[in-house]
């Protein structure tokens, strides 16, 4: 009788181990596409940049751009809502 019980317990333990391993494999396969995309992005970052922006703007270009935005006077609503 004890032998049959031990066999049943061993069978159940092995089934649980197989299920756990299958779940690990499913998680790996589910995450695999994102891992591939990240690797591709790291290897070929130039392909993911926007066209026409190969080099950053010069300091003078950046200053001109931001001064045009910040240099304009604007009227704001001074009233505070409750």
Radius of gyration, in angstroms, nearest whole number: 31 Å
Mean pLDDT: 80
Cα separation of the termini: 80 Å
Task: Give the helix level as a range of percent.
Answer: 55-70%
Poorly predicted regions are none
- State the helix count: 2
Global outline: elongated
Count of extended strands: 0
Explained architecture:
With about 80 residues, the chain is mainly alpha-helical. The protein has 2 helices and no strands. The protein has a domain at about 1-45. It has helices at about 1-45, 60-70.
Using brief descriptors, characterize the structure shown.
82 residues; mainly alpha; 66% helix
Question: What's the short version?
Answer:
It is built from two helices and no strands.
Question: Any chance you could write out the topology, listing elements then pairs?
Answer:
Elements: H1 2-43, H2 59-70
């Amino acid at each position: 009788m004890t032998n049959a019980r031990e066999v049943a317990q061993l069978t159940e333990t092995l089934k649980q181990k197989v299920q756990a391993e299958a779940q690990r494999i499913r998680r790996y396969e589910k995450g695999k596409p994102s891992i591939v995309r990240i690797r591709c992005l790291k290897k070929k970052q130039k392909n993911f940049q926007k066209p026409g922006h190969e080099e950053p703007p010069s300091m003078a270009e950046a200053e001109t751009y931001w001064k045009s935005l910040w240099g304009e006077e604007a009227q704001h609503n001074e009233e505070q809502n409750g």
